[in-house]
Amino acid sequence: TWLLLKELEKSGTVSFKDFYIRRSLRIFPAFYVYWSLVVAASLLHHRSIPIGQALSSFLYLGNYYQAVLGDPNTALSHTWSLGIEEQFYALWPLCFLLLARDLKRMIGTLAIGIVGIWLYRSLLAGLGVSQNYFYFAFDTRADQLMVGCLLAVVLKSKYRTAFMSRICSSPKAPFVTVTG
């Protein structure tokens, strides 16, 4: 978000193409080399990797595989977090661009989104949804990435000084992060 804000400030727009090229070059090469080595080593050593997990992680959907079917505890198990990240970055630049001209509106939208996900999680808990789903699913974890976006937008906006004064004025402020 910080980089998108800087690009917007500098050029007056955001290039989706450049964003996704940067994102792809940062994540895809290392991930697909790792994925290939894990699959090859597993085949070579006759170790089992569930095909569903292998395919879902390859497509950055391993988080939902594990949310629904559980974690088979393989060398691909930790790829769930990349799934959440990539799913977020598939959506966030478009949302950013729709809100970019009004940072106050972006702040409000992010805050509502964060609270909305908290309420959604409460609803799911009341319905007895599994802890696995809460832990691995994008729709129950996106608020954590949105908090980072919100912080970047606030720090880049005219509300920065007021925000910093408020956060730094109370010795109890750091404990706010524990209560979320």
Write up this protein.
The protein has 180 residues and is mainly α. 77% of the residues lie in helices and 0% in strands. The radius of gyration is 19 Å and the shape is globular. The chain starts with a helix and ends with a helix. The mean pLDDT is 92.
End-to-end distance: 21 Å
Average pLDDT confidence is 92
Number of strands: 0
Largest sheet: none
Beta-strand residue fraction? under 5%
Roughly how many Å is the radius of gyration?
19 Å
The shape is globular
Query: Structural class of the helix and strand makeup?
Result: mainly alpha
Total number of helices: 10
Oligomer: single chain
H/E element string? HHHHHHHHHH
**Helix amount:** over 70%
Which regions are unreliable across 5 or more consecutive residues at pLDDT < 50?
A: none
Topology:
Elements: H1 2-11, H2 16-44, H3 51-58, H4 62-69, H5 80-99, H6 103-126, H7 131-136, H8 138-156, H9 160-169, H10 176-179
Spell out the key features of this protein:
0% strand, mainly alpha, 180 residues, 77% helix, globular, single chain
